[in-house]
């Protein structure tokens, strides 16, 4: 402190104490400071270890050992970050310690410290930039849709979806059909993944489609995935009517076949499946007593009651085949059955006894007994054996009556048991005479 006399004659001059020299070497009590105190940096994922990210700098006014900085770094929120970045303790350069994966962790935050006697800190926020390193992934291994064959045009069948773990355009997925769309039935919306039917389906042609779908991202270069499978099962609709195999159906049957005899197989086919193609056969417009019936499931027409050609020798009727769809479809066919004659009528004498008178000198060949009347069934006895022309009679019910009234002169194949006739001949003498019944 400087002193001086005040009010005295003697002046004493006291030398001023030397002013302390400003310290050239400050004590290590001055805190260093980061400039700036927070850092933002970006680094692309997948870069090799050692990629420089940023550099931090702290200023310490101290010199020498006291001013020497030593950077350290520690993750602020997630210790996983510690293994991925390092800071150079001397230069403050921060670089990667391992390749990064943005999809695992996209932001890393650190506190950088100079831990000297009076430490300084800064925060470093590192954002990981996306690299297109993920291909789109489908949400399902296989998509399955069931579509009725009569689905309308541009009907949506299903929607596929693939996600991409990347970001931005690297994660923007576009869809396309790779294979299986042989007839061009399907269209997929590239953006939405909605699959439409664009041309008519036909269960009778193709029952199932398997499409392979590609999902491709918008990266440069893009990544794609073609593992998407779509199975479209076409469902049958009753869109085919039964069709008779050969029409009209014609058959002949002997009049003496037994009840239950199979006359003709009336068969129709139906291109549909299940009940839509299961046919039920019925006879149409046949009244009671009709001598035929049909097996509803097989289409066999069988004899239901005894036939008699001499009553009806021809039948014409219709058969319907109807499927069991909803609603059902049906078709009809005409069937004609001709009844063939069997020699099932024996000749019969009109009288039990005949008597005649015959001149004893009657010439050989003189007529003695009148011919027996011809009988129904064509079993009559006639000279010669040529059958007369058929003379069909169409009955109002569509069935032709038998030709029983016609003289049918056919030899008996087997002896029919007919009645016996007795003939008494009285010989008269002399004059020629004719036989008298
Ligand atoms: Ca991607
Ligand atoms: Ca990525
Ligand atoms: Ca069908
Ligand atoms: Ca059908």
UniProtKB/TrEMBL annotation:
GO terms for cellular component: cell-cell junction; plasma membrane. Residues 1-35, 378-415 are annotated as: Disordered. SMART domains: CA (SM00112). The keyword Transferase does not apply. Pfam families: Cadherin. PROSITE patterns: CADHERIN_1, CADHERIN_2. It is found in: Membrane. It comes from the Eukaryota. Residues 35-138, 139-244, 245-349 form the Cadherin domain. GO terms for molecular function: calcium ion binding. The keyword Signal applies. One of its GO terms (biological process) is homophilic cell adhesion via plasma membrane adhesion molecules. Keywords: Calcium, Cell adhesion, Disulfide bond, EGF-like domain, Membrane, Repeat, Signal, Transmembrane, Transmembrane helix. Gene3D superfamilies: Cadherins (2.60.40.60). Coiled coil: none annotated. This is Cadherin EGF LAG seven-pass G-type receptor 2-like. The lineage of its organism: Eukaryota, Metazoa, Chordata, Craniata, Vertebrata. The gene is LOC111944820.
